[in-house]
Structures are given as structure tokens and as C-alpha cells.
Fold:
Amino acid sequence: MSNAPAFALPRRARLLPLLVERHREHGFLDRGSVEHIARQLGMPVAEAWEAAASMTEFHFEPVRGERSCAGLACSLRPGWREPTLPAGCLFRCYEPPASGDERPFPLEMVRRSGPLLAPCDQTWAGLERARNLGPAVALEELERSGLRGRGGAFFPTAAKWRAALSRGRPLALVLNAEEGEPGVFKDRALLCLRPERVLEGLGIAMQVLQPAVTIAFINGAAEPAAAAFERALAASPIAGDVLVYRGAGGYVLGEETALLNAIEGRRAVPRPRPPLPVEAGLFGMPTVVNNVETMAAVSFIIREGAAAFRELGTAHAPGTRILSVSGRVSRPGVYEVPMGTLLSDVVVEAGGAGDSSTALLCGGPSGGFLPWDLAATPILPGRYHPTGAMLGAGGVVVLDWSSDIRRAALTMAAYNAEQSCGKCTPCREGAPLLLELLGSGRTAEVDELADVLQHASLCGLGQMAPGPVRSALEFWSGVFV
Ligand code: SF4
Structure:
């Protein structure tokens, strides 16, 4: 498919796949195995250990028992028990309380579908059209569509591609399927149910960018999603041109520079910016990292045209967004809605109470809480409220504030403290302190600390960790005294 010369990845890029393979075989990583792998790759043992230890789902001793979910939607359910094994969200928030391994995403949990979640024929018509248009015209079509990345940052996709192309070759392309935000399961839905749609978008990106290497990086626990993707890949026109990597956990792994470090066989922590990945990313190459939902949208745009995409959504935010809705609703699942749809309408459609007892957590541990009287807000990129609630990756957990809000705020603060990778001091020290302040009722001290986290942390995890705390205190300060 790609006419670009293939780029031979350095040997250390085999580190993560070998660690994952060994972990699967034995259920944990022992010292001897990591040392053996390091020697095999000709890299320092200390660096191999450092990389392995940064993956929160690797075990370094045998573990027994079944994983049960510690995520918010599950912990709100009667019958939920504190997990005995370390486990964050199990990404089955639509069937709480979840336990055990991941299962294929159920079709019936697609509560509302739009162009991305609707059945997609397997004619590869979008790929064919991209070929006929040629890279330059296909990129212009994408630009006209106004697509912005669906990973959470909403950066214009065509501008990202152009920025990488302007740096020259070789360049790298990475599909970010490391969906790791608690309460978000829409990429799993796309990969399980519509893998051809995602693959077609990826193939179109390969046509336009002519990458020297293309990698699909799929969450390590998302077994059914990875299996569906790999099956579809094997039957696709881009079979043989895409390397599949699997992660090993951690919220911060979804951050694109942490993901690149993981592929490079390094500690999976964010890199300082600049340079941006489009300037110097994977092994120094200009690198485009796009999310699963973004690639699905690329497929639709090239198949149907930019104008068809722009018929959906708003002038400034065209297209649809897939929300993952869970918590105190009778119809949890994924809802693909045009941008600009009112958030409150989706919650009511999902069976939320929709009255003053309702609170929403929007944007997960990096987002914030929203009272019902502010929920009639259009679903658009950015924040719903300055204290933290935002669209982000599209997670919406519906809460009953009278009973849930304190626990939910503490759960989010604890999660951020646990997931801090420790690379920078403001987040490493500040996130646990934020939890302590909230838990002990020393809420008057929160603002100053939150400012430090927000402005001095290296990546989004630390910068946005104050959101759930600040928003909970803004609207429900009474429950923390
Ligand atoms: S902000 Fe937190 S997660 Fe991000 S690099 Fe710093 S310590 Fe790591």
C-alpha cells in the first residue's frame, strides 16, 4: 500500500511486544525474563526494567483472583465490592458491576448510531476514492470537512497531517487505540463492531502521508477489540503494512508522547514539548498520532465527501461525537450524536432522572462535575464549565449528587494520584496532596495547590487533575465539610 521506503525500527522497539508476550505466558514478569529480553535486544537491563515498571498492568509476582472494576459507574451499584486485585476501570461501565476479562462490545449497547457506528460495507470504497483523488486532493477534502481530532484535544486533523508532511520524510503514523480513560468505551465499540471503518480511515491516512512505518497501538486489556481489529486487518488491503502493538495499562499511556516512548522501548511517560510529535516523534521522525474515532471519521469524509460531514454538527464543530454514557441511567451505552446536541437531551435519552438530583461527571478524571441546571449545554469541543467539566473523550457518568458526589470526587482525586507517572514534581507530589486535602476537609487550601498543578505540571493528567475537585467544591461544597 505505501510507496514509501519501509523504516527498520531499532531493536529496542521489540521490547514492549516481548514483555507483553512474556507476561501473557507467565502471568507476571520476573527478573530473569526481563534481563533475558534486555540482553536479546542489546539494551541495558536497567532501561528494560524502567520501561516495564512504568506499565501499571504488568505484575512482577504471581497474582490470583478475578479482577473487579473500581470505576465510578460500577462502584455506584448495589453489590459492588472493593477490588482485591489492583484494577481501575474495566471499561464495561454499561453493565455494572463489571468483573473478569473484557468481552466483545455488545451491539445492543449502541443506543444511538450515526455515520461512524452504523454498519459499514466492506467495499473499501473510501480507500479507492482516496487513491483516485491522490494524496494532495484527499488532504484538501479532509481540510474542507473541518474534522478535529476526537481523542479529546480536537486539533484540526488536516493541519496535523500537513505539519508532519512539511517536516519531510521518513514519517510515522500511529493509530492511538490505547483507550484508558475510566468511563470511556467508545473506541472499543468501534474496534469491535466497525473495525473496517477504522481501518479504512487508517488506510486513507497511509495513502496521504505515505508513512515509513504505521503502528496500531491497542489497549493491552482490550482483547476482543484487538482480535476484531486484527481479523479485519488481515482481510483488508492494508494487511501487512500495519504493525499492531499492545499496551500494558496506565491512564497516562494514552498521552501521545508516552505512547511513542512505549513503542520505543522506553519508560512510558510524557515527553516535554516542544518538539511536538509532528516535528520529532517516533524515533525522531515526524509522527502523526490519531485516535480511533478520528480515523473512522476520515473514512466517512473520504467516502461521502466533506459536505456530507459538514451537514452534521455545527459550522465550527462539524460531524458527530460518540459519547460513552453510564452511571445512574436505565440505558447506558454509546450514543453517536451530532456536535451541538444538548448534553441534557442525551442524558434524558439514556434514562437519567433529569432533575435537580442529577449530577454529571463529564471528561472523567481530567474533567469535572456539572449540576443538572447547567446540563442544557451543547456538546462541543472544550469545557462545559470553567471549573473542569468538558467534552474530552466523551465520557459522561450520571450521578445522584445527594449520595454520590463526595465519593465520586474522592474517587477521581485518588485515581489521578495513583496514575501520576511521577515524572514531574507538581503532579507527583501535588495529586496525592489534593486527595488528602479533599478527604480531610481542608478545602480552603485546595485552590492554591490546584493552581500549581494546573500551571506547572508537564502533561494533561496533572494539569487537569484539579478539575473534578474544583468543580465538586464549586457546586457541592457542603458535602465536604
Ligand atoms: S503531569 Fe503527572 S502524569 Fe504527567 S508527566 Fe507529570 S507526573 Fe507524569
Notes: The longest strand covers residues 320-327.
